[in-house]
Design a protein that fits this description.
By secondary structure, the chain is mainly α. The chain contains five helices and no strands.
């Protein structure tokens, strides 16, 4: 895999991480439940930290790192905001949107891991993938607890 291809993969993951950071931040602004507020705030911070790690790798490889989320992420947030405005904000609908966003993130990381990444970068991407999977599982658990 060329340096440029590695940079492209990392920049895609930066966009996904920035999308997650924004989505969890937005969710934190919509809830009053202390457990959810804490989870969303901490998860947003972890997404920001993950993006920063990826950006540093892109710089190290001589590339220009992405600094924003993706168009798809922006479109998802617009849809989620519209849906929340129509349906009224409740914990379940917020968690459902988070679960969809995290599923997208898991798929993006799994796609990146199919690439022939340099070992040190693969290790970092695998670590972040585990974190994204854990986020998705936590969101799913929280969603299931709201349904019962």
């Amino acid at each position: 895999m060329t340096n440029e291809e590695t940079i492209s993969v990392l920049n895609d993951l930066i966009e996904v991480s920035k999308d997650g950071e924004r989505e969890f931040h937005d969710c934190a602004e919509e809830v009053t439940d202390p457990e959810l507020l804490n989870f969303f705030t901490k998860t947003s911070q972890r997404c920001a930290e993950g993006a920063a790690m990826l950006q540093e790798e892109v710089r190290r490889l001589g590339g220009e790192p992405e600094t924003e989320g993706s168009f798809a992420g922006a479109a998802h947030r617009v849809w989620a905001n519209l849906k929340a405005a129509i349906a009224g904000v409740d914990k379940s609908s917020i968690l459902e949107e988070c679960e969809r966003g995290e599923q997208y993130a898991v798929e993006a990381y799994e796609k990146a891991l199919q690439e022939d990444l340099p070992p040190d970068i693969r290790e970092m991407v695998e670590m972040q993938h585990h974190g994204v999977v854990a986020n998705m599982e936590r969101v799913h658990t929280l969603l299931e607890s709201q349904r019962h």
